[in-house]
Amino acid sequence: MSSAAGTGAGDGPRPQGLAAGPASSPAVRQPVRARALADLPPSPLSRAAIKDPTAVERANLLNMAKLSIKGLIESALSFGRTLDSDYPPLQQFFVVMEHCLKHGLKVRKSFLSYNKTIWGPLELVEKLYPEAEEIAASVRDLPGLKTPLGRARAWLRLALMQKKMADYLRCLIIQRDLLSEFYEYHALMMEEEGAVIVGLLVGLNVIDANLCVKGEDLDSQVGVIDFSVYLKSDDDIGGKERNVQIAAILDQKNYVEELNRQLNSTVSSLHARVDSLEKSNTKLIEELAIAKNNIIKLQEENHQLRSENTLILMKTQHHLEATKVDVEAELQTYKHSRQGLDEMYNEARRQLREESQLRQDMENELVVQVSMKHEIELAMKLLEKDIHEKQDTLIGLRQQLDEVKAINMEMYQKLQVSEDAMKGKNEIIGRLEDKTNQINATMKQLEQSDKDLLTQTRTIAMSFVKCASNEAQHQYKLVKDISF
Known about the structure:
The chain is mainly α.
């Protein structure tokens, strides 16, 4: 059996046994199929191929995708689950995915040639799925990629390493109105087979891929499907199944858990969306009912206001006519009384001048009172400072008196201890008592001086009250509090 189905360039080779796709015209495909079917007996499969060849192409691509994904998962479990770029089943998987994405792709005309690439729909994913922006930016920044096909191949490899290929393609196939710009209506990505392949891609999340995209030549690679990888004998298949039976069971378990997780998240999001829509619908119904009631009330008010407006207009017209007659009479009266008004105006103007002069005098007097007030406040501050100084002096004298008393006590104790020096001590005590009397006399003089200062403070406060009784009542209270 041949290991390769064929070769190709640009869009990649087409696998042997698959139809050419919508890019080739039906006039070229039909003679080839007619000659092939002429040598075989008629069968239901051949009749279906004649009726709907695109359905056969989609079925073939779906079967190849199933075999490729299944073989990749099984071989990865036996290989160690971490794959690199040179792993043959992984290379065949990317070739199959490339053929699946190219199926039914519209041909875009350019100045030099026809162009058919899968980078267009893949580039659309970043607008639908925000997490895909990082992959698209990384692909654009790769220096070795020059063709859209190379960027698409790099995008597929990065999506597999990120384990998000199924999520990205699911967002893409949901937006069929956007995909219709890139694919024909009968393309694989526009039909149910595309959704099935996306569901199969979820199983690839159990394997890890370590691919070097930067140094690989993805522009000039030739995508050829090697059918010999999937066409094996029963003995080989049975032997490998026995070797990887435990790993396959574990892989199936992980696949089911991953699928169940995604389904649960989808169901939860759908339930939340349904609840929000129900709440929004109920709220909108209530708002609609309220709006209808408001409209009815506004219509009634509008009708009532129109009737009232008509009545007001009629009354206004009658009132306007009566007012016009009154205005004419008042105009005659105004002409006669204008002379008296001029005299009144001159008198009011004279009174205004007098009031202005009186106001100016009051303002000048107010300025004088304010200056006096500031001078009195300054005198009060000086008196307060003098009182505080006298109080500090009095406190110092009292401390000296306490010290003298302490000295007297000490001398009295020494007098009892040394009877021989009693006479000398008595003389010292006498002198100390004289000094004490002098200090007491000084304290009395200071107290008399303090009383005189308080009397002067009261006199100043009374004079301040007499000068500014209307403006400084609160200051008199403050002086009174300081005095007493």
